[in-house]
């Protein structure tokens, strides 16, 4: 069955069932052992995050706070192919089919959406407008998204590169509504990766 993978041994073809002995990592009572245990135990909350995005005309270089940030997804293309082998298949003496899945060359990065309360700032709109007017090459921006621990330290840090806006929307206004008016910006980016916090 594995003749088409001559360079892979059995441990490489199948997921390992071995489990590391985590307790051995904390056998010492030093500061590093407790730091590792803290990192593994704490689950980060979705409400404590910060978006760093430098735009033209932004106050202090960063344009306000965002209420919602979504679209963190990177997916790998899957190439699937089927091979026929001279092995029994049901009542047939040969013709067994084996399907393999391999990673392809294409990586897809979803668009990132930023949502915040509508204010007098026109920075997000001006960013989109500059791209629409043909100045898109100079409007690409790098930024980061930090998710914080309860003690205020950065627990997870994501970086996006060469981002540019593709859509801008404002929530519907209703006289009977008590909700905040919000604006939402969707941007495409070429690189999205997780990096180690400073």
From TrEMBL:
Give the highest taxon in the source lineage: Bacteria
Query: Ranges of Low complexity compositional bias?
Result: 7-25
Disordered, as annotated region: 1-25
Stored PANTHER family: CONSERVED HYPOTHETICAL PHAGE TAIL PROTEIN
- What name is this protein filed under? Phage tail protein
């Amino acid at each position: 069955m594995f003749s088409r993978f001559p360079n892979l041994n059995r441990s490489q073809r199948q997921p390992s069932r071995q489990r590391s002995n985590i307790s051995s990592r904390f056998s010492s009572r030093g500061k590093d052992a407790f730091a590792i245990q803290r990192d593994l135990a704490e689950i980060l909350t979705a409400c404590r995050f910060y978006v760093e995005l430098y735009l033209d005309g932004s106050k202090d270089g960063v344009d306000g706070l965002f209420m919602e940030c979504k679209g963190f997804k990177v997916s790998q293309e899957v190439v699937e192919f089927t091979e026929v082998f001279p092995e029994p298949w049901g009542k047939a003496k040969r013709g067994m089919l084996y399907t393999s899945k391999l990673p392809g060359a294409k990586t897809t990065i979803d668009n990132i959406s930023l949502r915040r309360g509508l204010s007098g700032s026109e920075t997000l709109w001006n960013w989109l407008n500059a791209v629409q007017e043909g100045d898109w090459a100079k409007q690409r921006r790098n930024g980061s998204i930090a998710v914080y621990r309860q003690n205020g330290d950065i627990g997870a840090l994501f970086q996006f590169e060469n981002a540019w806006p593709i859509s801008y929307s404002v929530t519907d206004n209703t006289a009977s509504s008590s909700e905040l008016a919000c604006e939402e910006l969707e941007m495409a980016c070429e690189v999205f990766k997780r990096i180690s916090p400073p």
